[in-house]
Amino acid sequence: MCGIVAYLGEKQAYPILIKGLHRLEYRGYDSSGVAIINGSMNLYKCKGKVNKLENFVKGKNISGSIGIAHTRWATHGQPNDINAHPHTSQNGKLSIIHNGIIENYGPLKEELEKRGHIFLSETDTEVLIHLIEDIQENEKLDIAESVRVALNQVIGAYAIVVISKEEDNKLIAAKKGSPLVIGIGDGEFYIASDATPIVEYTRKVVYLEDEEMAILEKGKDIVLKSISNISHTPYFQQLTMNLDALEKGGYEHFMLKEIFEQPSSVRETMRGRINIHDGIVKLGGITDYKQKLVKAKRILMIACGTSWHAGLVGEYLFEELTRIPVEVEYASEFRYRNPVITEDDVVIAISQSGETADTLAAIKMAKKKGATILGICNVVGSSIPRETDAGSYTHAGPEIGVASTKAFTSQVTILTMMALMIAREKGSITTSRYQQLVLALEQIPKQIEETLKTNDIVEAIAARYKDSRNFLYLGRGYNFPVALEGALKLKEISYIHAEGYPAAEMKHGPIALIDKDMPVVIIAPRKGNYEKVVSNIQEVKARSGKIIAVVSKGDTQVREMADHVIEIPCVEEMLVPLVATIPLQLLSYHIALMRGCNVDQPRNLAKSVTVE
Ligand code: F6R
């Protein structure tokens, strides 16, 4: 989604802004722009990547120590030069960058047009900066007050930064719904939509709350207030993010780096939470809610995309181990379907970014209805952890590749630990089985390491099928969500149509698709419904489909039938998703690369989906 960077201080703003935009490229965008004040308001923007903007500004006036910059992911209006941010007011004295959607921009625009405003773009953002100017001119207010008054007329979500040529020592920032973080340097301020552009300059930050604004003035302390004009005390936090995590570290792509990081990211997820000597799992963040979970009549998992797939694995885990009924919901459906929610329900919201608009809205709705809300998030300090009653961070480290990889395995790891913790507390598992599973979970990072050694085999399979037009992914039980996740990864980054299905459902429809050109990826470990999956493989073979099977080490039965096999270590059935997902991530990666796709920033996709 859109990215925001702003700077005010003694240094030249442009290099900081451009570097910041590069840091935010992972979020997904289609145009970019920058505005710097240096006597005049110098604004440059264009469709395309940040590199294009850099070429565009060559030889132009980019000096100045106050500026704003933006990467836009189109919502209102085509991705083109005019719709790109920043946008300026009619008199050219004000500029704005904005993430989110102003829902009532239509009526506001009509009103402003009646008053003589002429708009250049199709965006809601331009309407907002004209509104701010209109208020400033009519009510003779300073820029901060004009922004505050304007925001009281706005319906929708926003994270904005506004600069004014006439008050060129101030950045005005505000947020509702979309995230915004302010870095406090030595006599300087940084603003960004997440901490990645800030961390190399300062670790002292303030996260803005909803309907809160910041007035940042050179030489003064940060001033925070609500948009209803109540003064707030800033709550300073320290960033713990590691700068190396934002670099590719020798890998060709972030996605590949993040796939290979999984032994360590899963280890990080478990760090300090599993005591191997006494075999105890402890998730400190939810300890106070253990009883609530044990007594829950129902657990609802809400999430989107890959996080929803993790929730599905969670359903199998929780029901098997805790015997508590679980429902897994797409946040976007849940929030609009008037679901039955009671105070005995526990909602677990799962999100890598912690900013997904639908998940956030679903949380707010369930909260209003009295449910207890827990979060499983990766990004520390993001909106979802702040909106939930309690939760557990996955601690997988920054995930920069748009396609989620290490976040998924860490989410499944947390869900496994949660299910084990509740089962033990509830007495729905024997002590010996509990300890056996804890030990097995602790071994998973090593087994992921072993699984990563299949990379060359997977690459060869990718070369064979890179030109296929369709793929089918099949799995049963715990591996049905793995099939869904494998298919999602492939379509996201290679643009090949892929479907994930529970293997037995194939004969109820998708079997019609199978012919000699159809690769079918089957997750067939020697666990659970193995014999049934073998029958599904035979059904595919009988129709000349090509089988790529993910099998347990040493398997011979499937090997005889399959066209290709990828061996994974033998692990507990409920832990198979943690290893079986790895070769599917690699398969998508290699196919996308061979097809010349942009692996880290696939077309049309955004890393954190902060709009509906
Ligand atoms: C897939 C992917 C998306 C996200 C989804 C939810 O690779 O990245 O499907 O999983 O947009 O995002 P989070 O987890 O940030 O809420």
Provide an overview of this structure:
The chain has 612 residues and is an alpha/beta fold. The chain folds into three domains: 3-241, Glutamine Phosphoribosylpyrophosphate, subunit 1, domain 1 (4-Layer Sandwich); 244-442, Glucose-6-phosphate isomerase like protein, domain 1 (Rossmann fold, 3-Layer(aba) Sandwich), CATH 3.40.50; 451-597, Rossmann fold (3-Layer(aba) Sandwich), CATH 3.40.50. Helices cover 36% and strands 23% of the residues. It is built from 20 helices and 27 strands. Strands 3-2-4-1-10-9-11-15 form an eight-stranded antiparallel sheet, with helices on one face. Strands 5-6-7-8-12-13-14 form a seven-stranded antiparallel sheet, with helices on one face. The chain has a five-stranded parallel sheet with strand order 19-18-20-21-22, sandwiched between helices. Strand 25, helix 18 and strand 26 (546-552) form a beta-alpha-beta unit. The longest helix is centred in the C-terminal third of the chain and has 21 residues, at 406-426. The radius of gyration is 26 Å and the shape is globular. The chain starts with a strand and ends in an 18-residue tail after the last helix. The model has no long low-confidence stretch (mean pLDDT 94). Bound molecules: fructose -6-phosphate (F6R). Residues 304-307, 351-353, 356, 359, 403-404, 488, 492, 608-609 line the site of fructose -6-phosphate. Fructose -6-phosphate (F6R) binds next to helix 9 and helix 17.
